[in-house]
Amino acid sequence: MTTPASAIETLRPDVNRHDFLAPERPNTAPTDGHSVVFAQMPGGEDGPVLREQCERVSLELLRLDYFEFVAHAARYWAFNTHASGISVALFVGPSSPSLELGGRLLSNPKVSMNYVSLGRTRILVPQLAFGALPLQRVPAPEAIKLLRRAFDAGIRFFDTARAYSDSEEKLGLALHDVRDQIVIATKTMATDAAGARGDLETSLSKLQTKYIDIIQLHNPAQVPDPNDEQSAYAALSAARSEGLVRFVGITNHRRQVAYDAVASGLFDTLQFPLSHISSADDLSLVEHCQNHEVGFIAMKALCGGLLTNVTAAFAFFRTLPSVVPIWGIQRESELAEFLALDRQSLVFSREIERAIEKDRQELATSFCRGCGYCLPCPAEIPIPMAARMSFLLRRAPHQQFLTPTWQQNMQRIGDCTECRDCASRCPYGLDTPGLLKSMLVDYDQFLGEHVGCGLTCVP
To answer: At the fourth CATH level, which superfamily is domain 125-362?
Structure first.
């Protein structure tokens, strides 16, 4: 590994060495106790230009077709793209907060360097993260190829879950040999210690790894009691002490549970539905996480396919530099679109602002977040699932939702009494009965196309 002192000697002779200096050390080059990042160019030519920037050193890479970052205990801070190349800013003082890149080697110029630090974890990941839920629908050879292409393009953060059938296994098959260069987040829906431990051990095996970067409680009904030694949270905390887990997070669809979880101090990250049609109350969670140094991971960035203006979605998240959106990917065309957008210097223009406002007016009352506040239903309709059925049929293995049991569940929508208790309890102002009826129409059509028998399939 090249040390900071020796790295300086590799620079072009026209570089002013004072550009390396931290302000508190005005006449000395950084020692090996400080952190300096430099670039190694093709053919062994080293040509970075570094300049002083407050307590940071900014490194500009010019004319690069391929690059590698090599660091000695590097303290990464932020990445940026611009017309002439790629800038990397990083702390150089030994007392600087430690920010960790998602992998020790970043070697692809195709993805923009818009990186986000995940709260107090100090993990630094691209704002383009891979959501592996849809991979359940993709045959293993195609999924492995897709994941590998994502990695080769520079994506370093992959989110999955124990509940996503074989998603973890496909991730393990595709990326086990580059494990130290990626960040993996997975989830457990277990509610007790034994179940959580079992899920964790299964995830470790399927992912072919010795540790999980972020293990998340998957949409629990309430914030766990930290004093309950038999809770799932207790098991994950114990696993962290063993080195099997680096950080513990939580995912949730309920705003109040999410808010309380962040304030509890128990969790390093929060994963919550967020998009450019989110309400002001939902968006307030971003600042809440910042105030508590909790990393914010945004699920449902496209509302499960409801939002089709992907450019507007990307531009929106560029205005939230502390948030990492998870983009569900199941096709190479989707990956290519996301990568192309990530390379662009998107500007939150008036045109994009108008497009977002249009989406909010037309679609904000059409997306169920699955929070469950609508329950119980007197007609026993499983509303949180039924109201998202169009998404579930197309983003998860659909066979599980075409069983006789689920056909019966969906037909209960026809028994709706229009009491509107569900709508009155919805924190998002959805017309729940109307949404359910539209889901039933789509479900019947999907059922006929895939099973070849409409409602007659129900015994």
So the answer is: NADP-dependent oxidoreductase domain (3.20.20.100)
